[in-house]
Amino acid sequence: MSVSLGEPSRPLRVAIVGSGPSGFYAAEALQKTDLAVQIDVFDRLPTPFGLVRGGVAPDHPKIKNVTRVYEKIASRDGFGFFGNVTIGRDVPIEMLREYYDATILCYGAETDRRLGIPGEDLPGSHTATAFVGWYNGHPDYREHEFDLSAEVAAVVGQGNVAADVARILAKSVDELRATDIAAHALDALAESRVREVHVIGRRGPAQAKFTPPELREFGRLESCVATVEGAIELSPTSAAEVEGSKDLQKNIATLEGYAANDAAGASREVRFRFLESPVAIEGDGRVERLVLERNRLEGDAGRQRAVPTGEHVTLDCGLVFRSIGYRGIALPGVPFDDRWGGIPNTAGRVTDGDTVVPGLYAAGWIKRGPSGVVGTNKPDAVETVRCLLEDLPTLTPCATPDSAPLARHLASRGLRVVSYDDWRRIDAAEIARGTAAGKPREKGTSVDELLGFLDA
Ligand SMILES: Cc1cc2nc3c(=O)[nH]c(=O)nc-3n(C[C@H](O)[C@H](O)[C@H](O)COP(=O)(O)OP(=O)(O)OC[C@H]3O[C@@H](n4cnc5c(N)ncnc54)[C@H](O)[C@@H]3O)c2cc1C
User: Fold this and answer.
1) According to the model, what pLDDT value does residue 394 have?
2) 430 occurs within a structural domain
3) Which run of H or of E encompasses 96?
């Protein structure tokens, strides 16, 4: 007997791996169809929302309001949350196929690209991911230590994540106290001796990836002055790039303002540097200096690349933060493209060579790479779900259309699965703790601590 997936008698069953923005937008797109659907969202953490909780900077609270939309999605019938479950470890991907008709992989890009230079792993050289995770209370980075006793720090990279890292280093503790920054990070930042933060880009001011508001924010910091190393000079090709983009025009105007600033007497300085690539991190047992090679730009407008000139400069610094992009991590049993660090796919249908893998889909950063803001993941997830719906007549219905045996399997492994109601209790406990401390929330920063809220 053939089965019609999506009928009230046999709802379409979809597993979503990852509860970041793309996972929630994929769930929402499925909810907007006329089909009967059961959506179970899995996350390796006991908490939902991915980088909205663990990436977005604590001093940008408005962006986190998007979780209200996710709350609504989670409140609808047919939505299940399996927090504290790592797909690929606790549940092999093949097992999901037994209980779900389709799986959408939305598990983000959680590791960093490497610079590939000597000294990259010296103490004092950190990834932006680790620093961001640490100040945001992500359990993976709770035990990470940041020695902030150096006066000079270098941030390598000129995107918004690099801007977040530089701004958190440059802000006074009073500017951060009333945010949801993790308590351990606030304590360490209160003792920070960092006075100068150099933000280094391999290309020029016209190619920096900051969005205009994020760059402008450096002009409004309480006790920090933003400056530029040297003058803002644009080649005719770069000037043409700026001419064609309102955002670039804004950024150049902002940087010209910073170039006119004088940091003398300021307690902190953020200095933007351009056309320099790190070639080595040096020091006796820990970071003492960053060796940079000067670059020039070559190529057509919009496609200019940095070409080394052979001229070197040295920046004495005790801290280096590498912020040059994220990569996804391969999941056992799922095709992976090691060149760009994501899942090969066509419009969200996972592919293995030239073949589409039936019933397997991807959305968000693991689908398209680590680019775009939270909202970018919505049309991206909608595109993926559209493919899934087109494929509906050809999907093989799963053998066991029921979530209960899977829940039993997890319990038999001693796993404490966090439901969405459990998360609401964790949420309430964090908010209560925060209220007592004059903050929007005081996060649990380890899995044990988060699960402990459920036993209180
Ligand atoms: C530091 C930083 C700051 C940012 N700031 C902003 C900002 O201010 N404004 C803005 O609009 N955008 C910002 N972004 C971009 C935005 O966060 C991303 O576009 C968005 O989070 C990507 O969504 P995603 O769902 O693909 O991945 P993610 O948000 O990374 O979600 C992936 C989820 O998958 C889970 N997961 C991973 N592996 C597994 C597994 N094996 N099993 C189960 N679950 C798993 C993770 O725990 C996570 O919850 C920022 C990004 C970063 C890195």
Assistant:
1) 95
2) no
3) helix 93-99
Is 1's pLDDT higher than 70?
Answer: no
454 assigned to some structural domain = no
**So what's the pLDDT on residue 3?**
76
Q: What angle do CA 278, 219, 223 make, to 5 degrees?
A: 90
Q: What is the pLDDT of residue 2?
A: 64
Which CATH number covers residue 392?
3.40.50.720
Going by C-beta distance under 8 Å and a sequence separation of 6 or more, which residues neighbour residue 312? 279, 291, 292, 293, 294
Report which protein residue has its CA nearest ligand 1's atom 27: 108
| 93 pLDDT above the threshold of 50 | yes
Residue matched to tokens 């230590």: 145
Residue 260 has pLDDT above 90, yes or no: yes
Instruction: State mean pLDDT over 268-283.
Output: 98
pTM (2 decimals)? 0.96
The finding on whether 204 has its CB within 6 A of some atom of ligand 1 is: no
Pocket residue to mutate for ligand 1, from 91, 111, 374, most atoms within 8 A of Cβ? 374
CA of 214, closest atom in ligand 1: 8
- What average pLDDT does range 113-126 have in this prediction? 97
Cα 246 from Cα 255, distance rounded (Å): 14
Domain limits at 58? 12-110+327-418
Element spanning 198, H or E: strand 196-200
Nearest CA to ligand 1 atom 1: 55
**What is the best residue among 42, 49, 56 to mutate for testing ligand 1's pocket, by most ligand atoms within 8 Å of CB?**
56
Rounded to the nearest integer, the mean pLDDT of the chain is 97
Q: Could you tell me if 390 and 316 lie in one domain?
A: no
Q: Which of 162, 143, 139 is nearest to 54 (CA)?
A: 139
Q: Does residue 258 sit in the same domain as residue 177?
A: yes
Q: What is the mean pLDDT of residues 17-35?
A: 98
